[in-house]
Amino acid sequence: MPYFDTASAAPLHPVARQALHAALDEGWADPARLYREGRRARLLLDAAREAAAEAVGCRPDELVFTPSGTHAVHSGVAGALAGRRRVGGHLIVSAVEHSSVLHAAELHAAAGGSVTEVPVGRTGAVAPEGYAAALASGTALACLQSANHEVGTVQPVAEVAELCGAAGVPLLVDAAQSLGWGPVEGAWSILTGSAHKWGGPPGVGLLAVRKGVRFSPQGPADERESGRSPGFGNLPAIVAAAASLRAVRAEAEAEAARLRVLVDRIRRRVARLVPDVEVVGDAERRLPHLVTFSCLYVDGETLLHELDRAGYSVSSGSSCTSSTLTPSHVLRAMGVLSEGNVRVSLPAGTTAQEVNGFLELLPGVVAGVREKLGVAEPVAAAEPVAESLEVDALGLRCPQPVIELARVITSVPVGGTVTVLSDDEVARLDIPAWCALRGHAYLGESPRGQGVAYAVRRLR
């Protein structure tokens, strides 16, 4: 049963398993103690720190281990903001950062700080000029992920780091998704990572803070990990995390080249095999193992369940898979279709046969889900009956408002308009995305009673 969700958590690397077992026997003691068992544990901890620092591209005394990647992000943001509080309380983030960064930004704003969110283009990448425009005299910290966790787009970290450096502002880089593939380019100031993303055990994060960056750890003082990550660390897991990072780096170049070919195959063939699909993210500047696409007229949760029943484990940023019925903030920021969203992220060792099997299965699964929703493939055309129509989709949830729009668009002549009345928040994203995908004009929205009226002009 192929597992295609390594962007959430990679399978434990064999080297991590071996190192974990060995460290359970040798690294159980307190590395802060001076007796024999403590000294042995300290040697393991020092070796792990040196290996991780080499992979990150920093000095060993600049790197500490944390209980998770999220903990590393929160500690990094809070420590940098506190260390530069005399400069100001302005924080810059991109609109597609991981939720851990955005949650830290929300907490900062709630405490009285200010946050600027830099938008992204349709591929999910920021423009360095956006950060340049956001930098101000009171900017304490800027954050930018190395690569996006939902669509795989690689961000221009080196260019943004140069701009931030010229302004004297530290740049925090969330490198959770990319660290297993190589070091982050550019003069970053703070970097975070998460071991379970590269095949290490869960419960280990990395926080690297360059010398010279003003940093004030928050919370009660602790003598461990330079005071930046309190508590007795899980040394066996730390050893396994560092060992697996070194191992995956040794394999990264060859594996990246192999997986990129398989992902390119998915990107090309999905668009040909499945009608009404949008492949999202940058086609070139992207992680080698990840591809995301969205299917019109498909319930995302049902689609994932059907793929799981067929033996394929994938994930989604679709609003239809969320109890809140709100779309992924990444897809929203990109302005792309969210319904029927599928993220495929291939683990090391994925074979061409597994990918081919997925591609052979996918069209039938999508067609089956559409059939359950009463949608022909593609949506059947109709004869024009009026210059303008209004569709009442109140109470209908993703993807039904778009399905209703697709059913009636040919009931107006070219140049005619269809207005969809919906109370589903997702319609604000998916109706404009549908227009872009199907070649119609989105005219905008207006409040209407308990819902919102979305106006569309037929162009073909």
TrEMBL record:
Transmembrane segments: none annotated. InterPro entries: Aminotrans_V_dom, Cysteine_dSase, PyrdxlP-dep_Trfase, PyrdxlP-dep_Trfase_major, PyrdxlP-dep_Trfase_small, TusA-like, TusA-like_sf. Pfam families: Aminotran_5 (PF00266), TusA (PF01206). It catalyses: (sulfur carrier)-H + L-cysteine = (sulfur carrier)-SH + L-alanine. Its cofactor is pyridoxal 5'-phosphate. Residues 391-415 form the UPF0033 domain. Residues 242-269 form a coiled coil. CDD domains: SirA_YedF_YeeD. Belongs to the class-V pyridoxal-phosphate-dependent aminotransferase family. NifS/IscS subfamily. This is Cysteine desulfurase/sulfurtransferase TusA family protein. It comes from Streptomyces goshikiensis.
